[in-house]
Amino acid sequence: xxxxxxxxxxxxxxxxxxxxxxxxxxxxxxxxxxxxxxxxxxxxxxxxxxxxxxxxxxxxxxxxxxxxxxxxxxxxxxxxxxxxxxxxxxxxxxxxxxxxxxxxxxxxxxxxxxxxxxxxxxxxxxxxxxxxxxxxxxxxxxxxxxxxxxxxxxxxxxxxxxxxxxxxxxxxxxxx
Length: 176
Fold this sequence. Notes:
The chain is an alpha+beta fold. The protein has helices at 2-18, 30-81, 103-107, 142-152; strands spanning 115-122, 125-132, 162-166, 169-175. It is elongated.
């Protein structure tokens, strides 16, 4: 037993001698800490950039989903009533469509900014539903909206079903 205690004390002393003065603590140098901080900063920047792209795509897909719901509601109205959906002021649901869609959802800002709108015999189309960037929430530029068009139509805002009808209006054309 005495031999074991002596051996343990000897082993501790040899470690202390190897690590410097007796009782010295191990620590990181300033350079090592700075290197770790820089590496963590680079990793954080990569994660933030990746996350930013997913938020953008998520907003766009949410907008497309909401637009498709709106298109279906207008389609049901037109099939039952045998007439086109009435024109509305931007962000105001026509009373005739109230039983086909939720007023609060229609009158709220869209997932990408702007307000929902229904066009009838305006902007060169008979019937269309879409978003009007009237200063409510974020305003999106044509490049952003072309990304949405690529996800749901042909990727060209001048052709296809999803189009730019005016500088600040992007609509799904129901009837030309």
